[in-house]
Specification:
Fructose-1,6-Bisphosphatase, Chain A, domain 1, 2 domains, single chain, alpha+beta, binds manganese (II) ion, 17 strands, eight-stranded mixed beta sheet, five-stranded mixed beta sheet, D-Maltodextrin-Binding Protein, domain 2, binds 6-O-phosphono-beta-D-fructofuranose, 335 residues
């Protein structure tokens, strides 16, 4: 079997095109290393005793799994020493993580969800890592929370690793979306899915329907029309999927199209949405838009939201362009 382009070669060549420095390649390389380690830990699972709860809660009040904590540590350890980051922030840490004084600091910020979809870990269903790279504001070398609060349009790079039947890395630097498959025997991500594109039309949707009684009118209307199928106003049957791992959901949409929704609902009025803006919604929106799809809260483009806090939540509607446009239109009609 011929060996394809490695992810390192790919990003170095991409970096030359955009005139970026080697620092950027280093950030990505360290993140890829972390994801390979997380992949190995997820893969060994019960054999090495990493399943189950860690007995702690994160800032969101969610029970942390052992693998959430292990994956977070792996991301930190792989990225803190290299001298290209000024700071990191994670779903699993309440505060910004400063680069330890013993290491040099660089010009990038890394924000991540170390193990997304962690309710799926113990049942051996796909999980993933999501990350976003931002520039540290000029003149700041010890960034605080406010330095991270940049809209998604300012992302330099976004990506996710999917730990599924094969481990994949999918990423964008704003020049389209490319997917790489981990060759476990060599330990390298190899380009297997160049220039991924989301088909504009789809007949597949993803939503947690157990929340339907809490949805707003435009979402109820949209889903009712899909469920009515060939007998309803759409005149076509639609299929549904819900993995409960956003990474797996987005990957399916990048592969064969679809619409994913975790819309605003009134289940808990103190929460603006389920998913987190900085390390879930923004990186996924960057990838989806770069693949020709759309991403919205229903009321605004996600990547244009000015974040107010690190762990802010937002409604998310993303995927195939024509379906996202339709649901946004239903929101406009509802006023
Ligand atoms: O981290 C958020 C997340 O695990 C996503 O990966 C997933 O889409 C969603 O939550 C699942 O939510 P629920 O448990 O409500 O279906
Ligand atoms: Mn998550």
């Amino acid at each position: 079997m011929p060996i394809g382009q490695t992810i390192t070669q790919f990003i170095i060549e991409e970096q030359r095109k955009i005139g970026a420095s080697g620092d950027f390649t280093s950030v990505l390389n360290d993140t890829f290393t972390a994801c390979k380690s997380i992949s190995a830990a997820v893969n060994k699972g019960a054999l090495v005793g990493v399943l189950g709860s860690a007995g702690s809660e994160n800032v969101q009040g969610e029970t942390q799994k052992k693998l959430d904590v292990i994956s977070n540590d792996m991301m930190i350890k792989a990225n803190e020493w290299g001298g290209h980051l000024a700071g990191m922030a994670s779903e699993e840490m309440e505060e910004v993580y400063p680069i330890p004084e013993r290491y040099p600091r660089g010009k990038y910020l890394l924000v991540f969800d170390p193990l997304d979809g962690s309710s799926n870990i113990d049942v051996n269903i796909s999980v993933g890592t999501i990350f976003s790279v931002l520039r540290c504001p000029e003149g700041v070398d010890r960034p605080t929370e406010k330095d991270f609060l940049q809209p998604g349009t300012r992302q330099v790079c976004a990506g996710y690793a999917l730990y599924g039947p094969s481990t994949m890395m999918v990423m964008t630097t704003g020049q389209g979306v490319n997917g790489f498959t981990l060759d476990q025997s060599v330990g390298e991500f190899i380009l297997t899915h160049p220039n991924m594109q989301i088909p504009p039309k789809t007949r597949e949707f993803a939503i947690n329907a157990s929340n339907s009684r809490f949805w707003e009118a435009p979402v109820k209307r949209y889903i009712d029309e899909l469920l009515a199928g060939a007998d309803g106003p759409r005149g076509e049957n639609f299929n549904m999927r819900w993995v409960a791992s956003m990474v797996a959901e987005v990957h399916r949409i990048l592969t064969r199209g679809g619409i994913f929704m975790y819309p605003k609902d009134n289940k808990d009025p103190s929460k603006e949405g389920r998913l987190r803006l900085m390390y879930e919604a923004n990186p996924m929106s960057f990838i989806v838009e770069q693949a020709g799809g759309l991403s919205s809260t229903g009321r605004e483009r996600i990547m244009e939201i000015q974040p107010r806090e690190l762990h802010q939540r937002v409604p998310v509607i993303l995927g195939s362009r024509e379906e996202v446009e339709r649901l946004v239109h239903y929101h406009q009609e509802a006023g």
